[in-house]
C-alpha cells in the first residue's frame, strides 16, 4: 500500500509541475529554433520530424539531413553525406547484438536500452529512436521465439498422478514427497512421463491482448505529452520495477543456496547410512506384512488397498491423461492460429486508423468522427479477445481441479481475483510500452517472477507476447518514414542473430547450473540501466533547451501537406533503395 501511495504522489507532483509551468513558463514560442527542410522547396520547420526523409537535425547549421547507414564520406557540399556515423553504427552494432542476447534470455525486448542508446550513441531523435527500438525488439523477440518454441518446460518429468496441496492451499511439489517411486520404477511399472512447452500459450493468449490494448492507449497519451515528461514517468516506473526485481533476485538466490545445501546434506546422509540400509535388507518388508480386515476377518495386503483405490479413481486418471496429452503438445496449432488472427486484426485496424506519420488507408484524419470509432473498435477487439481467453483459463482450471491435475508449484492458480490483477497490470505494462517505445517485458516480466512463475517460463511467455506488440508498432514506424529502412532492416537482423546466439548460451548455463536467479539478476540490471538512461536523456535535452520545459501538445494537429505530397512520397521510396 505504501508503494502504491508513493507512486500516486509522484505522478500527481509531475502533473502539478506541468500545470504550474503552463502558467509561469517564460519559454517564448518566438525564440524557438527552426530548421531548413530540403523538402517542399526548402521550407522551415520547428522539428525535423516534420521533414519527411530528413529526420535528423544539425544543431550547428540549423538544417535537417538524411541519415545513411555506415556513412563515412565528407564532401562538405552535400548535406546528405557530410555527417559521418561509421563508428557510431559499428559500436551500436556491438551494443545491440549483446543487448539482444541478454534481454531475450530474460524475457524482455531490450527497449529500455535501445531507446536511450539510440539517442545517446546513434544520435537519433527520441521518436525515430523509439521506432528503431521497436524494429530491434521485433528482431530479438522473433529470434527468441524460434528458440522458445522448441524448448521444454523446466519440469520435464510430469506424471499422471494426483496433484496435492498443503494446508495453505499451495501446490505441493510431488517430486519431493517421501516414498515416491523413482522415474525408472514409474516407467517400468507402466507409467508415462509428460512435459510441456516452455511457452505458456494459454497465459499469453489472455495477457497479450490486454498488453496490446494498453499500448494503444499509451500511443494516444504520447501524442500530447512532452518528451521530458514521458521520459520522467518512464524513469519512475522503471526504477520502482528494478527495485522490486532486485528484491526477488536476492530471495530466489537465497532459496537456491538453501536447496543446494539441503541436497548436499541428503547425499551425505544417504552415503553414511548405506551400510545400515544393507544390514536391514533381511528384515521383512512392512508393506507386505499381512493385516487383518476387521470387517471380514480376511488377511489382505497393503497392495490390495492400492489396487482398490486405483479402480475407484480410474475415471479421473483417464481425464488427467487427456489433459496431460493436450498440454504436452509443443506446437498447439489452434492456439498459434489464434495468435495470428489477433495480430492481423490489430494491424489492419491500425492501418485503417493511421498514426505515427502513416496515412490512413481509408483517408481519415484524427479530427474525423470515424477515427474515434476505430480507436473504440481497437479496444473492443483486444480487450474482448483477452476476456474470452481469461474465462477459458478459469474453465480449464476448474475442469483440471476436479480430477486432481498434477500442477507444478510455479503454475498460476487462476481465479477471478488473479484474472483481474493480471489483466490490469498487463494493461498498465502496455501503456508504458506504447508510451516510451519498449516491449513491455520490463514491467510484465518482473510481475510474473514476483508472482512465483518460473523465470524460464516467464521469459519465454513474455518474449512471445512482445513479438505481437513490437511487430505491429515497428511496421507503423518504418512505413511512416520515421526510421530509415536501412537502419531498421540492419538492426532487426543484428538483434535477431544476437538473440538467437545469446539466448542459447544463457539458457544452456541456467540449465547446467540450475541458477535461474541469474535471469532475475540480469533482468533487474537491464531495468536499472534503462532507468538511468531515461533520466540522463531528460537532463541532456533540458540543458540543450536552456531548461525550458515544453508544455502539453495538441492531440490532433492536421497539416495541409498537399503541396508537397509527391515530394515526400519520392523521398520515402528513395530511402528504401
Q: Could you characterize what this model shows?
A:
- With 577 residues, the protein is mainly α.
- The chain has helices spanning 2-24, 86-105, 111-120, 126-148, 183-188, 201-224, 227-272, 274-279, 302-312, 314-327, 333-353, 369-402, 416-436, 441-450, 455-480, 485-513, 517-544, 565-576, and strands at 35-36, 44-45, 56-58, 63-65, 158-159, 193-194, 291-292, 299-300.
- Helix 6 (201-224) packs across helix 13 (416-436) and helix 6 (201-224) packs across helix 15.
- The longest helix has 46 residues, at 227-272.
- The protein is elongated and about 85 Å long.
Shape: elongated
Number of helices: 18
Helix content: 55-70%
Strands, count: 8
Tell me, rounded to a whole number, the average pLDDT: 75
Distance between the termini: 55 Å
Which class do the helix and strand fractions yield?
A: mainly alpha
The value of Rg in angstroms is 29 Å
Strand order of the largest sheet: 1-2
List SSEs in N-to-C order.
HEEEEHHHEHEHHHEEHHHHHHHHHH
What percentage of amino acids are in beta strands? under 5%
Uncertain stretches: 19-26, 286-307, 560-577
Largest sheet: 2 strands, antiparallel
Question: What's the topology here?
Answer:
Layout: H1 2-24, E1 35-36, E2 44-45, E3 56-58, E4 63-65, H2 86-105, H3 111-120, H4 126-148, E5 158-159, H5 183-188, E6 193-194, H6 201-224, H7 227-272, H8 274-279, E7 291-292, E8 299-300, H9 302-312, H10 314-327, H11 333-353, H12 369-402, H13 416-436, H14 441-450, H15 455-480, H16 485-513, H17 517-544, H18 565-576
Antiparallel strand pairs: 1-2, 3-4, 5-6, 7-8
Amino acid at each position: 500500500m505504501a508503494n502504491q501511495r508513493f507512486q500516486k504522489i509522484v505522478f500527481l507532483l509531475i502533473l502539478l509541475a506541468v500545470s504550474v509551468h503552463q502558467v509561469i513558463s517564460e519559454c517564448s514560442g518566438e525564440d524557438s529554433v527552426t530548421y531548413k527542410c530540403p523538402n517542399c522547396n526548402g521550407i522551415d520547420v520547428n522539428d525535423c520530424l516534420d521533414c519527411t526523409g530528413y529526420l535528423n537535425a544539425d544543431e550547428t547549421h540549423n538544417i535537417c539531413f538524411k541519415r545513411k547507414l555506415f556513412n563515412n564520406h565528407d564532401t562538405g557540399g552535400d548535406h546528405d553525406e557530410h555527417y559521418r556515423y561509421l563508428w557510431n553504427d559499428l559500436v551500436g552494432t556491438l551494443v545491440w547484438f549483446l543487448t539482444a542476447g541478454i534481454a531475450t534470455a530474460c524475457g524482455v525486448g531490450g527497449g529500455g536500452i535501445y531507446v536511450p542508446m539510440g539517442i545517446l550513441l546513434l544520435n537519433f531523435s527520441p521518436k525515430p529512436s523509439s521506432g528503431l527500438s521497436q524494429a530491434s525488439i521485433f528482431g530479438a523477440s522473433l529470434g527468441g521465439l524460434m528458440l522458445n518454441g522448441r524448448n521444454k518446460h523446466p519440469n520435464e518429468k510430469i506424471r499422471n498422478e494426483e496433484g496435492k496441496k498443503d494446508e495453505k492451499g499451495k501446490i505441493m511439489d510431488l517430486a519431493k514427497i517421501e516414498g515416491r517411486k523413482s522415474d525408472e520404477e514409474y516407467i517400468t511399472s507402466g507409467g508415462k512421463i509428460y512435459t510441456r512447452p516452455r511457452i505458456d500459450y494459454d497465459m499469453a493468449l489472455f495477457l497479450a491482448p490486454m498488453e496490446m490494448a494498453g499500448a494503444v492507449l499509451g500511443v494516444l497519451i504520447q501524442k500530447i505529452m512532452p518528451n521530458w515528461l514521458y521520459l520522467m514517468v518512464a524513469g519512475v516506473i522503471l526504477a520502482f520495477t528494478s527495485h522490486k526485481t532486485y528484491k526477488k533476485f536476492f530471495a530466489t538466490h537465497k532459496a537456491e543456496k538453501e536447496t543446494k545445501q539441503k541436497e548436499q546434506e541428503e547425499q551425505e546422509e544417504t552415503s553414511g547410512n548405506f551400510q545400515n540400509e544393507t544390514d536391514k535388507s533381511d528384515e521383512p518388508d512392512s508393506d507386505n506384512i499381512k493385516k487383518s480386515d476387521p470387517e471380514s476377518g480376511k488377511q489382505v495386503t497393503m497392495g490390495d488397498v492400492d489396487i482398490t483405490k486405483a479402480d475407484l479413481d480410474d475415471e479421473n486418471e483417464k481425464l488427467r491423461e487427456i489433459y496431460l496429452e493436450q498440454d504436452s503438445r509443443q506446437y498447439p496449432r489452434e492456439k498459434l492460429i489464434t495468435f495470428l488472427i489477433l495480430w492481423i486484426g490489430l494491424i489492419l485496424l491500425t492501418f485503417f486508423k493511421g498514426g505515427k506519420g502513416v496515412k490512413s488507408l481509408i483517408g481519415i484524419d484524427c479530427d474525423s468522427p470515424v477515427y474515434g470509432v476505430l480507436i473504440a473498435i481497437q479496444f473492443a477487439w483486444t480487450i474482448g479477445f483477452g476476456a474470452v481467453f481469461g474465462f477459458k483459463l478459469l474453465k480449464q482450471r476448474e475442469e483440471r481441479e476436479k480430477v486432481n491435475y498434477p500442477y507444478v508449484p510455479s503454475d498460476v492458480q487462476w481465479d477471478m481475483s488473479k484474472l483481474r490483477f493480471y489483466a490490469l497490470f498487463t494493461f498498465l505494462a502496455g501503456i508504458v510500452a506504447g508510451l516510451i517505445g519498449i516491449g513491455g517485458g520490463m514491467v510484465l516480466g518482473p510481475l510474473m517472477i514476483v508472482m512465483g512463475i518460473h523465470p524460464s517460463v516467464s521469459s519465454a511467455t513474455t518474449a512471445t507476447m512482445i513479438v505481437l506488440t513490437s511487430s505491429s508498432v515497428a511496421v507503423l514506424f518504418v512505413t511512416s518514414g520515421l526510421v530509415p529502412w536501412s537502419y531498421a532492416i540492419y538492426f532487426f537482423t543484428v538483434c535477431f542473430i544476437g538473440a538467437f546466439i545469446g539466448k542459447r548460451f544463457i539458457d544452456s548455463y541456467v540449465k547446467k547450473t540450475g541458477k535461474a536467479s541469474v535471469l532475475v539478476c540480469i533482468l533487474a540490471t537491464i531495468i536499472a540501466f534503462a532507468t538511468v538512461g531515461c533520466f540522463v536523456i531528460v537532463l541532456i535535452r533540458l540543458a540543450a533547451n536552456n531548461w525550458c520545459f515544453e508544455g502539453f501538445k495538441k492531440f490532433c494537429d492536421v497539416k495541409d501537406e498537399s503541396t508537397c505530397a509527391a515530394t515526400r512520397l519520392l523521398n520515402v521510396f528513395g530511402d528504401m533503395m
